[in-house]
Amino acid sequence: MVFWGLVLGALLVVTTGCLYLLGVLRQRRPQEPPLDKGSIPWLGHAMAFRKNMFEFLKHMWAKHGDVFTVQLGGQYFTFVMDPLSFGPILKDAQRKLDFVKYAEKLVLKVFGYHSGQGDYRMIHSASTKYLMGDGLEDLNKTMLDSLSLVMLGPTGQSLDSSCWHEDGLFHFCYNVLFKAGYLSLFGYTKDQEQDLRQAEELFVQFRKFDRLFPRFVYSLLGPREWREVGRLQRLFHKALSVKRNLEKNGISRWISYMLQYLRERGVAPAMQDKFNFMMLWASQGNTGPTSFWALLFLLKHPEALQAVREEATQVLGEARLKARQSFDFKVSTLHHTPVLDSVMEETLRLGAAPTLLRVVHNDHILKMASGQEYLLRSGDIVALFPYLSVHMDPDIHPEPTTFKYDRFLNPNGSRKVDFYKAGKKIHHYTMPWGSGVSICPGRFLATNEMKLFVLLMVTYFDLELVDPNTPVPPVDPQRWGFGTTQPSHEVRFRYRLRPTS
Ligand code: HEM
Ligand SMILES: *[C@@H]1O[C@H](CO)[C@@H](O)[C@H](O)[C@H]1NC(C)=O
Ligand SMILES: *[C@@H]1O[C@H](CO)[C@@H](O)[C@H](O)[C@H]1NC(C)=O
């Protein structure tokens, strides 16, 4: 009897444990947000979420209101959809929400990088020093040189000005931004032709990784794709290895500062290589796709293109090529381009769709702007998806799906910063870079880089869509939540150097 009692007891414990792990036993407690576990144990709503996060969240929002908790692959996510209530989550004065913990798990999985204690601080202090303010001066000069090299070739002859070149707009933008960005940050050797070839090859591999990335993060790769990811990771570790750095000069101070820190901490060279890959990913995965959307919107809206060109002529004078080799350009002009600034802000509003995630440390109360209070449960994740809850809110941005190049301009031509929701001024009226502790530290460099590229394209080149009636392609639904979105198909365009004096 006693024996069977023990066996039954043990069985009960095991089953309860399993049920618990499968999420069957979780119940909504008083004051917690609506709980939607989905119909499949453990997986919950994972399939619908991964297939199209945007549509899924729209549906949940309509069903449950501004705050709800959903089960996704054994983890509970509480989505907060009311931007007027973001404040306490982003400021998190009580330190009950943790960004670093989740990020560390992710980079270990995706890049094999074991984060050290002070990494987060180190990355942000390196970025404050070298990706912002005065520290950016070196880099934005380097970026201009790199763009000249990539677009005009080492001798300036690679583009014959008299003829049109045809390409996919997405490929073209991503390719140019990747190569220029990679070379500017990770350095040159003595042989520029060789550098360009290597950057081109790296771009091809980067795109392979990029395509697998969303399903890799969601653990949805088949065995062959899994091996392919492993191969790509090793290839990047080798190409970006710190051993190779010895042959290079002009490695950005941003990268060398961070590597020096890791060296001094005794981090193994192989781990530093992984760190480099992580930084390549963070720095090159969004600027190309964003520039694509920017140029596409300009090509689809001739009045916007016209306005950007007029502004460029005003601040730059007539476009000239210096010795046919490099763009003649004062980077400081980027300070005086409110029209282009508005175009970029509008592009990011329509194109950038990151998810912000924070792990809940201790059970605590989230107070909404409405006064409503919700209990957040320890171990759950609080999630924001500002693309849906902010960028597409017709109250904040009337006709939210339409590109309006002057949406971020005041009538007197200055930058518009006043936006309202329900009559209240709203602080976070777009959030392409994330916000709070996890805000993108590269946002100033990214903006400069993309502005430079767009300015060069519209001032030095004639451009047109191969089929002017081609519509703006829909977003690839797999990429919702991963930074800048990508189009579900390519758009053909052609370009040629404008005849210059
Ligand atoms: C259009 C271009 C870009 C967009 C839309 C973008 C967006 C973002 C977002 C949303 C995050 C935060 C992710 C989170 O909350 O977990 C992030 C993080 C980061 N970004 Fe960017 N980014 C861009 C370009 C760049 C560039 C050019 C660099 C560097 C040169 C860069 C460096 C980083 C780094 C290092 C992080 C991680 C910061 C951390 O660990 O706290 N980004 N980016
Ligand atoms: C580039 O360098 C300048 C220094 O004059 C710096 O102030 C600025 O933020 C950087 N970016 C642009 C676009 O000028
Ligand atoms: C331009 O207009 C905005 C609001 O419409 C105002 O806040 C700003 O001070 C004005 N700037 C100038 C230079 O007049």
What key attributes describe this structure?
501 residues; alpha+beta; Cytochrome p450; six-stranded mixed beta sheet; three-stranded antiparallel beta sheet; globular; binds 2-acetamido-2-deoxy-beta-D-glucopyranose; Cytochrome_CYP8B1; lipid biosynthesis; Cytochrome P450 family 8 subfamily B member 1; heme
Oligomer: single chain
Please give the domain count: 2
Based on secondary structure, the structural category is alpha+beta
Can you tell me the CATH architecture of the largest domain? Orthogonal Bundle
Number of strands: 15
CATH top level assignment of the largest domain: Mainly Alpha
| End-to-end CA span | 100 Å
Helix content: 40-55%
**CATH superfamily membership of the largest domain:** Cytochrome P450
Radius of gyration over C-alpha positions, nearest whole angstrom: 25 Å
- Tell me the fraction of residues in β-strands, as a range: 5-15%
Low-confidence stretches: none
Mean pLDDT, all residues: 92
- Main β-sheet, in a few words? 6 strands, mixed
Helical stretch tally: 18
Q: Characterize the overall form.
A: globular
Organism: Canis lupus familiaris (Dog)
Keywords: Endoplasmic reticulum, Heme, Iron, Lipid biosynthesis, Lipid metabolism, Membrane, Metal-binding, Transmembrane, Transmembrane helix
Cofactor: heme
InterPro entries: Cyt_P450, Cyt_P450_CYP7A1-type, Cyt_P450_E_grp-IV, Cyt_P450_sf, Cytochrome_CYP8B1
